[in-house]
Amino acid sequence: MHDLDETDLEILRLLVADARRPFREIAEAVDLSAPAVSDRVSRLKEQGVIRRFTADIDRRQLREGTPVLVDLEVAPESAASIRDAVQELDAVEHVYVTVDGHVLVHANAPGAVGPWLDQVLEEQGVRDVAVSLLRESQWSPTVGASDFALVCDECGNTVTSEGVTTRVGGEVKQFCCPSCESRYVERYEELQSDA
């Protein structure tokens, strides 16, 4: 486990601005060698800080679908299953789950919005729906020093240099200590055996 330093944050800022930026160019900006930048990016991926590199597509240019913002008021116990169902729909850009029982969806609904949305409304636990047509949307990710503190997947404490990174069920998980890692893995294995 390695704490994120100012160089890591600057590398992240540069990648957020342009994920295809060559490591050589990043290296010049952060005063490292290209192989050192490559190593840091690999470590950030292993830690789960970088999940993937993707393209930000302006669907208006493709004339595809109807841009909408959908607010689903859901029963709190149904939020995870509804979030998962929404993520499976075609043309979903972003999904957010709020603490007060809402699942917010930014999408470009293919064809008519009603039939597209009916796929989700069949899910149990949807209490109310509000759909807003979007004129435009802007994606402006930022990286700031306060944005990045790795959080223990077991207890929620900040993960320091004594922390542990483990792959559980194909996902990278961060733990503040070996005992949190052990508890999490044991619970995961119990759930897997019960399934």
TrEMBL record:
HTH asnC-type domain boundaries: 4-67
Transmembrane segments: none
Keywords: DNA-binding, Transcription, Transcription regulation
InterPro entries: ArsR-like_HTH, AsnC-type_HTH_dom, HTH-Siroheme_Decarb, TRASH_dom, TRASH_HVO_1752, Tscrpt_reg_AsnC-like, WH-like_DNA-bd_sf, WH_DNA-bd_sf
GO molecular function, one term: sequence-specific DNA binding
Protein name: AsnC family transcriptional regulator
Record organism: Halodesulfurarchaeum formicicum
